[in-house]
UniProtKB/TrEMBL annotation:
<keyword id="KW-0346">Stress response</keyword>
<dbReference type="GO" id="GO:0042803">
    <property type="term" value="F:protein homodimerization activity"/>
</dbReference>
<dbReference type="Pfam" id="PF01025">
    <property type="entry name" value="GrpE"/>
</dbReference>
<dbReference type="GO" id="GO:0000774">
    <property type="term" value="F:adenyl-nucleotide exchange factor activity"/>
</dbReference>
<feature type="compositionally biased region" description="Low complexity">
    <location>
        <begin position="31"/>
        <end position="46"/>
    </location>
</feature>
<feature type="compositionally biased region" description="Basic and acidic residues">
    <location>
        <begin position="16"/>
        <end position="30"/>
    </location>
</feature>
<dbReference type="GO" id="GO:0005737">
    <property type="term" value="C:cytoplasm"/>
</dbReference>
<keyword id="KW-0143">Chaperone</keyword>
<dbReference type="GO" id="GO:0006457">
    <property type="term" value="P:protein folding"/>
</dbReference>
<keyword id="KW-0175">Coiled coil</keyword>
<comment type="function">
    <text>Participates actively in the response to hyperosmotic and heat shock by preventing the aggregation of stress-denatured proteins, in association with DnaK and GrpE. It is the nucleotide exchange factor for DnaK and may function as a thermosensor. Unfolded proteins bind initially to DnaJ; upon interaction with the DnaJ-bound protein, DnaK hydrolyzes its bound ATP, resulting in the formation of a stable complex. GrpE releases ADP from DnaK; ATP binding to DnaK triggers the release of the substrate protein, thus completing the reaction cycle.</text>
</comment>
<comment type="subunit">
    <text>Homodimer.</text>
</comment>
<feature type="coiled-coil region">
    <location>
        <begin position="68"/>
        <end position="95"/>
    </location>
</feature>
<feature type="compositionally biased region" description="Acidic residues">
    <location>
        <begin position="1"/>
        <end position="12"/>
    </location>
</feature>
<dbReference type="InterPro" id="IPR013805">
    <property type="entry name" value="GrpE_CC"/>
</dbReference>
<dbReference type="GO" id="GO:0051082">
    <property type="term" value="F:unfolded protein binding"/>
</dbReference>
<keyword id="KW-0963">Cytoplasm</keyword>
Amino acid sequence: MANEEFTPEEEPVSFTDKRKIDPESGEVRGEAGASEEAAQGSEGDALSQAEEILDAAGAAQDADTAAADEFKADLLRLQAEFTNYRRRVERDKEAARETGVNATVASLIPVLDDVDAARAAGDLVDGPFASIATKLDAALAALGVERIDEAGVEFDPTVHEALLRQPWPGVEAEHVGQVLRTGFKRGDRVLRAAQVLVSTGE
């Protein structure tokens, strides 16, 4: 036992690597940390910028949608106004045409009275004037002009003007016994009422 040597216990050795350059990567350790922090900061800035861009894009899209809706509403309003204007113009044009035709026919009524008188006297049985009278009647018929000259029908104050009331053979009361002057109408418009004798019965 006296020959045994005393060997002290070895304490574990520890050291801190303070080298500024990483022997494995060759990078400067202090700059690497700074680069990582800078990268993280840059990433945060990029996210913030992306959010701002998206917000701005959303606001612009909302503004564009509102402008498009307003433009569409204006377009529909203008279209409705134009449609109403076109209908009004067509209606006024047709009314002006009807007024012009009625005025022209009304101015020809005295001529038609002369034609009827000549026909009743037998002057239009043959000859050139008979042909002219026939063509005139055809032209007026094409315009929708009708004569009011039928006897025996019920008296209608809207198309008849009663000049006389007396008994008339073969005609019942309140019916036209005789047409004294022919009337004319075009559609629902009476150009001149027929002057008639109204029967009071037999």
